[in-house]
Automatic annotation (TrEMBL):
Class of this enzyme: ligase
Reaction equation(s) it catalyzes: a 3'-end 3'-phospho-ribonucleotide-RNA + a 5'-end dephospho-ribonucleoside-RNA + GTP = a ribonucleotidyl-ribonucleotide-RNA + GMP + diphosphate
Keyword Manganese appears in the UniProt entry: yes
Protein name stated in the entry: 3'-phosphate/5'-hydroxy nucleic acid ligase
UniProt cross-references to Pfam families, sorted A to Z: RtcB
Amino acid sequence: MKHEEYDVMNVEGGSHVKMWTKGVPVEDEAKKQLANTAKMPFIYKHIAVMPDVHLGKGSTIGSVIPTLGAIIPAAVGVDIGCGMMAAKTTLTANDLPDNLGPLRSAIERAIPHGMSPKTRGFKGRDKGSWETPPTPVDAAWLQLKDEFDVVCLKTPKLKNTNNYRHLGTLGSGNHFVEVCLDELNFVWFMLHSGSRGVGNAIGTHFIEMAKQDMRTHFINLPDQDLAYLPEGTKHYDDYVEAVSWAQKFARMNREVMMQNLVAAVRTIITKPFQTHVEAVNCHHNYVQKEHHFGKDVLITRKGAVSAKAGELGIIPGSMGAKSFIVRGKGNADSFHSCSHGAGRTMSRTQAKKQFTIADQVKATEGVECRKDADVIDEIPMAYKDIDAVMVAQRDLVEVVHTLKQIVCVKG
């Protein structure tokens, strides 16, 4: 079935799926995964699918899943609270140095990034964590510590996770820090990260708890990663508390990184400038209670951003592609949501097989960034066309600023 704004996928024995995917590719595997999720008995109304949709673990990335009376931990995922932060500055392109290499190096020194290889017997410090956390990390951790101690009383195994030393750090994969220019040549700082190791530990633990509950009660599922926690159970309450804390950690993680990013830039650009002129800090992997169609429901956004009427959000492109600061239109059918990026068209393994370092160098021409074999999986051609993605969701958001990165730091 077609609608002026979206297509509808009817699912036998399940809720229907509304898809803002006109003009962009959608894998058959992703459609199957969406259908499996739509068959869960606690889906409220329908599932909303964003144009960056692609296959995920358990539930599809780029989907908005409304539920009543239950929550699916794998739909939230293990990078709980992953999201974006962007801040406009009073600097312009003319204030930037001709050689952007030292600027990139200063940012790399100021923000731990990457991840130590998970080799057998490795006991050293993760290179993506702090050896000695700086003052902004200490101040932020004080705001998180007491609540974390309560979470750990209920789930003791979380106590020894990498939390304090990961606060204010980037991670790896598609996480990044960027310096960008907007359409008027103003400089923006933008970054992408989440709840790091502690969020991963929380997500992994409760996904397993949900699976154990399903086995205990002999509940058959179309996909084991759709294991859920029913409202009113101990695991449900403990998960909601832990995931809420992880989302706070993720938001604060981005704030601390932004502080350190600004301080690093000031060591290279001595001209006084202001930042946070326009600032956005938004999750795109999270769950929270919201009011839709007359009811309070749990909304899980797995690779989707809140886009209430007038609300600002961030839709990044890939390395070398444009990014967008957007304003939500409050589309009810999308549960007030929009995409969280361009969305992958191929796996990381496939991208590394298909493209070369020469391809990466050409695709990121004009951007001061890594261009080695270890980041080929982030090449722009492994992602959907961001312009087509934006056209497909023109009923969900309007573009406020168009950003083009000139410096990109990846883990």
